[in-house]
Amino acid sequence: MSFDAHGTQVEFLSKDGRTALWYPGNGIVLPGRWRLVGADPTTGFQDNICFQYGANTYNPLTLNYGGNWECEGIALYQGHVVERVAGDPFGLDKRGAVPFVLPRQRTTFAELLKRRS
Fold first, then answer.
1. Which top-level group of life is the source organism from (predicted)?
2. Any residues with CB less than 8 A from the CB of 7 and at least 6 apart, and which?
3. What is the phi/psi pair of residue 92, to 5°?
């Protein structure tokens, strides 16, 4: 779970590079891909985590449409992580619809687990 300018986001990252993002306000889980890469001269970061979502997605902060890889420094990414749990407690990897619409406000796994369907 991360918290930043997007609000609270819950994301399942599989070992094989798949990801499932529960984004605040969305009614569906966004499937995507993730990978780690080394130095990126465009960002200036030494180690990056990169995400790719479908071409029909849109990032309201970067104003970019999906389909392309977007990378950020791993240290910056980890700085937004507020909680981690093992596994996929919300079953995001196998869902189309979100368990419920996630609010932007900061929350906890415990609070979300109380509401899951």
1. Bacteria
2. 24, 102, 103, 104, 105, 106
3. -60, -35
For 83-113, write each residue's pLDDT tens digit. 999 999 999 999 999 999 999 999 999 999 9
Cα 107 from chain centre: 15
Give the C-alpha separation, 115 to 117, whole Å. Answer: 7
Q: How many CB atoms lie within 10 A of CB 52?
A: 18
Q: Does an H or E element contain 12, and which?
A: strand 7-13
Cα dist from 52 to 20, 45, 59, 110, 115, whole Å: 11, 18, 11, 28, 29
Rounded Cα distance, 106 and 69, in Å: 27
Q: What is the pTM of this model?
A: 0.87
Can you tell me the distance from the alpha carbon of 53 to that of 69, in angstroms, rounded to the nearest whole number? 8
